[in-house]
Write a structure and sequence with these properties.
This protein is of the alpha+beta class. It has a domain at about 25-35 and about 60-105. About 15% of the residues lie in helices and about 30% in strands. It has one helix and five strands, in the order βββββα. It has one helix at about 90-105; strands spanning about 30-35, 35-45, 55-65, 75-80, 85-90. Strands 1, 2, 3, 4 and 5 form a five-stranded antiparallel beta sheet that branches. The longest helix has 16 residues, at about 90-105. About 5% of the residues are buried.
Length: about 110
Amino acid sequence: MDDQRPIWLLEPCPEWCTREHEEDDHPKDRYHASEATYLPVIGATADTVPATASADAFELVIHIRRQLDDPTDWVTVEPAQTRLPRLTLTRESATRLVRALAEQLDRDG
Protein backbone atom coordinates (compact mmCIF):
# COMPACT_ATOMS: atom_id res chain seq x y z
CA MET A 1 0.00 0.00 0.00
CA ASP A 2 1.21 3.55 -0.64
CA ASP A 3 1.92 6.29 1.91
CA GLN A 4 -1.44 8.02 1.42
CA ARG A 5 -3.34 6.41 4.28
CA PRO A 6 -6.97 7.20 5.02
CA ILE A 7 -7.45 8.89 8.38
CA TRP A 8 -9.48 5.90 9.63
CA LEU A 9 -6.57 3.49 8.97
CA LEU A 10 -4.76 3.69 12.29
CA GLU A 11 -3.04 0.31 12.18
CA PRO A 12 -0.25 -0.68 9.80
CA CYS A 13 -1.12 -2.96 6.92
CA PRO A 14 0.13 -6.54 7.19
CA GLU A 15 2.97 -7.29 4.77
CA TRP A 16 0.62 -9.36 2.60
CA CYS A 17 -2.03 -6.62 2.20
CA THR A 18 -2.32 -5.41 -1.39
CA ARG A 19 -5.71 -3.70 -1.03
CA GLU A 20 -5.96 -0.01 -1.88
CA HIS A 21 -7.62 1.61 1.12
CA GLU A 22 -9.69 4.68 0.28
CA GLU A 23 -10.86 7.51 2.52
CA ASP A 24 -14.49 6.91 1.56
CA ASP A 25 -14.46 3.12 2.09
CA HIS A 26 -17.67 1.98 3.79
CA PRO A 27 -16.96 0.75 7.35
CA LYS A 28 -17.75 -2.85 6.30
CA ASP A 29 -15.21 -2.51 3.48
CA ARG A 30 -12.37 -1.53 5.78
CA TYR A 31 -10.26 -4.66 5.74
CA HIS A 32 -6.86 -5.91 4.66
CA ALA A 33 -6.71 -8.32 1.71
CA SER A 34 -4.00 -10.30 0.00
CA GLU A 35 -3.59 -10.62 -3.72
CA ALA A 36 -5.75 -13.54 -4.79
CA THR A 37 -4.28 -16.80 -6.03
CA TYR A 38 -6.21 -18.44 -8.87
CA LEU A 39 -5.98 -22.22 -9.08
CA PRO A 40 -7.40 -24.23 -12.00
CA VAL A 41 -8.83 -27.51 -10.71
CA ILE A 42 -11.01 -30.43 -11.70
CA GLY A 43 -13.55 -31.33 -9.08
CA ALA A 44 -17.03 -32.60 -8.39
CA THR A 45 -19.49 -29.73 -8.55
CA ALA A 46 -22.37 -31.60 -6.90
CA ASP A 47 -22.89 -34.36 -4.34
CA THR A 48 -22.91 -37.25 -6.83
CA VAL A 49 -21.84 -40.88 -6.71
CA PRO A 50 -19.51 -41.43 -8.37
CA ALA A 51 -17.85 -38.02 -8.10
CA THR A 52 -16.98 -38.20 -11.80
CA ALA A 53 -20.70 -37.81 -12.58
CA SER A 54 -20.41 -34.11 -11.75
CA ALA A 55 -16.71 -33.56 -12.42
CA ASP A 56 -15.86 -30.36 -14.20
CA ALA A 57 -12.97 -27.95 -14.64
CA PHE A 58 -13.23 -24.68 -12.75
CA GLU A 59 -11.07 -22.11 -11.02
CA LEU A 60 -10.65 -21.60 -7.27
CA VAL A 61 -9.79 -18.25 -5.73
CA ILE A 62 -7.71 -18.24 -2.54
CA HIS A 63 -7.10 -15.11 -0.51
CA ILE A 64 -6.49 -13.82 3.02
CA ARG A 65 -8.52 -11.08 4.69
CA ARG A 66 -8.46 -9.37 8.05
CA GLN A 67 -11.03 -6.86 9.24
CA LEU A 68 -9.65 -3.73 10.88
CA ASP A 69 -9.38 -3.94 14.66
CA ASP A 70 -9.49 -7.75 14.45
CA PRO A 71 -6.29 -9.77 14.90
CA THR A 72 -7.65 -12.83 13.06
CA ASP A 73 -6.52 -13.62 9.51
CA TRP A 74 -9.16 -15.49 7.49
CA VAL A 75 -8.20 -17.69 4.53
CA THR A 76 -10.96 -18.15 1.97
CA VAL A 77 -11.16 -20.74 -0.81
CA GLU A 78 -14.06 -20.31 -3.21
CA PRO A 79 -15.00 -20.94 -6.85
CA ALA A 80 -14.16 -17.95 -9.02
CA GLN A 81 -17.45 -17.95 -10.90
CA THR A 82 -20.08 -18.65 -8.22
CA ARG A 83 -18.28 -17.74 -4.96
CA LEU A 84 -20.21 -20.63 -3.34
CA PRO A 85 -19.57 -23.02 -1.78
CA ARG A 86 -17.01 -21.06 0.19
CA LEU A 87 -14.58 -22.33 2.81
CA THR A 88 -13.28 -19.66 5.19
CA LEU A 89 -10.85 -20.72 7.90
CA THR A 90 -8.57 -19.01 10.37
CA ARG A 91 -4.92 -18.98 9.31
CA GLU A 92 -4.17 -21.64 11.96
CA SER A 93 -7.01 -23.88 10.76
CA ALA A 94 -5.93 -23.45 7.12
CA THR A 95 -2.41 -24.53 8.11
CA ARG A 96 -3.82 -27.66 9.78
CA LEU A 97 -5.90 -28.35 6.66
CA VAL A 98 -2.80 -28.13 4.45
CA ARG A 99 -1.02 -30.64 6.70
CA ALA A 100 -4.02 -33.00 6.71
CA LEU A 101 -4.28 -32.81 2.92
CA ALA A 102 -0.56 -33.62 2.62
CA GLU A 103 -1.02 -36.61 4.94
CA GLN A 104 -3.90 -37.90 2.84
CA LEU A 105 -1.98 -37.42 -0.40
CA ASP A 106 1.13 -39.12 1.02
CA ARG A 107 -0.79 -42.33 1.74
CA ASP A 108 -0.21 -45.25 -0.59
CA GLY A 109 -3.02 -45.37 -3.04
